[in-house]
Amino acid sequence: MANYTLEEKDSFTVLGIGTELKSNYTDFAGINKEKADFWQGVHKDGRLDLLKSVATNDYIFVVNEAVNNKMMHYAGVMTEENLPDASRIIQFPKGEYIIVKGEGKTAEELSNTVTGIAFGEVLAEANHVAYVGGPNAAVVMGERNGLVYGEMWIPVVRK
Question: pTM higher than 0.85, yes or no?
Fold first, then answer.
């Protein structure tokens, strides 16, 4: 059984800079390459630093969301501000969230690990709740002992 918690969260807003993922939703290698290329780009061109400059905390959100039948992927931060380069204000609903904690050598490894555990194990095992869509996020919270740590947040409803 995968290790997770259920946690009540107030609604919150994440400002994101995003990209559409063009790979088929079952093509994990293609999706992961697109995500890696996107993150390399936002680090290199300074857009991630720009987002961090308006953040209300140190968390970096790795957001996945279906928008108009497109798979979207965002780098985001919690903020009430807006930026001209931002592509979406992402509203996370008030309610229960499945929380999966994890760590990795990099933010990308952390995100892939907690996402895999959450969608590959937890949602299959947690038969008293259901993910009904909406944005979900791997949240990069910081570094300790040479590893990046954080959590996966998936909004769920009781069955």
Answer: yes
